Amino acid sequence: MRQLTATIVAAGVAFATPHAQASPADVFGLGSRHAAQAGAGVASVDDMAAPLVNPAGLARSRGKRLTLGAQGAFANLHINDRRTGLSDPVGAIFGLTAPAPLGGVLADRIHVGLGMYLLPGAIARIVARFPDEPYYPYYQGRTERLVIVPGIGVRVARRIEVGLAANFLAGLGGSLQASEGPTRALEARVDEKVPGVARVIAGAAWQPLDALRVGLVFRQRFEVPFATRAETEVAGEPIDLDLRAAGQFSPMQLAAGVAWLTDATTVSADVIYARWSTYAGPFVEVKSELPLVGPLAAELPAVPWHDTLGGRLGAEARLGSAATLRGGYGFETSPVPALQPGVTNLLDGPRHTLGAGFGLSWSRGRGKRVRVDVHVQTQIVQARTLRKSVFAAGEEGDGFDGLRDEVTDDANDPATQGAQISNPGYPRIDSGGQVFSAGLTMEVEL
User: Which CATH fold would you assign to the domain 2-388+423-445?
Assistant: First the structure.
């Protein structure tokens, strides 16, 4: 059954999502200016990253600006002695900001923007995991998608801005039917729908002093749903499977930030709360109807995901009119439980982020300027060790709380004595490592 389920899940996903490259914009930042400051900027962002960071910042953008660039990442994460990475995380950045073509009292008050991370050959990669599979849920599966975030920013008063954006992608739903044809070969029919998924990002900013601005942003929970019903008929007997999962999960977030502004420097500090405790997990839910057996449902482990808190500090130092230095540091607690004595092997730890970057700008004539920014970033995942425990015979407990001996002890067979466990994390599993990213963006005034 496990192999059959995995086959149908893979088939359903393959029809909607061909093999994709990773899109690290949500995890590492959108564009070099933002990523170089370790993601800080709720109160200071004013470029094409604003729809994702704080759409109110669009109201402070000036003129029409086009941004092009590239960004990529490399993972040095460990599962015991084995290194695991991301799925070719390289892609292109596209951004645009412009004032709304309005006159009168609305002139220069409303600005629109678009931030995108473009994958080379696909839209997204959605992988529903087996419960015992060792992997890093913060990086592997969340970062592998196209990012499309359009937004609008409005200056409602001289020192107050508000903004609204939408985090957009497609979902997946439908059915897969298979039965024996005239030649007794298995013939299939697939009917899949890909409805859009849009989630709100809302922000505000207030500048009580010339040198001080505060910002607040709300990001709605985001995930890409996957639902397929597989109706299979073999030798005249129906075998039906109802498959449901969700990929590309990002929790509901609240972020507050302050920015200290001078002619030579901008210092930004953010605090972020993320509600991971509502996450159902990356596992595929399977319900089935089998001949002579009736309805069956797979039991998934109840993982107690933790809400997280994080802080980010970033700075920009302008060296004259042409050059800018940037740097930043961030810290975030882990949503993954540190104790997992049972079936799950979800790997993670508290994260430290270090960023640095450099920018150059020059005039291309007629008062229009070009700015090129580069950045490097390192995320350090603190080491953790998961240790498993085995339930005693007859002991009650959920699959998350412990493992069970998979072979009944037979006094006449020494090979059955003791705990027979196939879980890949038994008796312990070590994790930790680093994830590196780098990129370049070019912004052109139009």
Answer: Porin (2.40.160)
